[in-house]
Amino acid sequence: MNGKRILLVENSEDDADLAARALRKGKGSYEVVVARDGAEALDYVFGTGAYLGRDQRLLPALIILDLKLSQIDGLEVLRRLRANARTQLIPIVILTASHDPQDVFMAYRLGANSYVCKPVNSNYFTEAVQQIGQYWLVLNEALPAEL
Question: Tens of pLDDT along 21-35?
């Protein structure tokens, strides 16, 4: 493991399993944490609920976020993450089935770093997820931990 953690927020069990496998097989061998809904994602990031006591110094290096989630939708998760000083600069990639221009607009307006529509074909889906991990955690120059 290279120490980089990805938070994958996905309510479809099939998509979550496929994406997590793709990320783990990628060149980075990342730790992948899966949250099944928006509330669980926020609990994980902020160390609340079931994640109370989680080491808050270990924030995800990347969050891959679906929009259509139960309890708290993806746009609200994005809004809350961008409103917090500790999480506002974590790269967040929207990976969703929605092609709705309003969703795309709102995601970018709220601070998404990228918006990717899920490919329907499982091979293309796997490739897209691997490319997301490769770009954001290998090719992209991340912010330094401290200046």
Answer: 998 886 666 799 999
> Which is the CATH superfamily of the domain at 5-139?
Response regulator (3.40.50.2300)
Contact present, 29 and 49 (Cβ < 8 Å): no
Every domain of the chain and the residues it spans: 5-139
Give the mean model confidence (pLDDT) for residues 97-107: 97
Q: Say yes or no to pLDDT of 15 above 90.
A: yes
* The predicted structure's pLDDT at residue 56: 83
Three-class secondary structure assignment of the chain: CCCCEEEEECCCHHHHHHHHHHHHHCCCCCEEEEECCHHHHHHHHHCCHHHCCCCCCCCCCEEEECCCCCCCCHHHHHHHHHHCCCCCCCCEEEEECCCCHHHHHHHHHCCCCEEEECCCCHHHHHHHHHHHHHHHHHHCCCCCCCC
Q: How many C-beta atoms lie closer than 10 Å to residue 11's C-beta?
A: 17
HSE (side-chain half, CA atoms, 13 Å) at 81: 32
1, two tokens: 């493991």
Is residue 3 within 8 Å of 59, Cβ to Cβ?
no
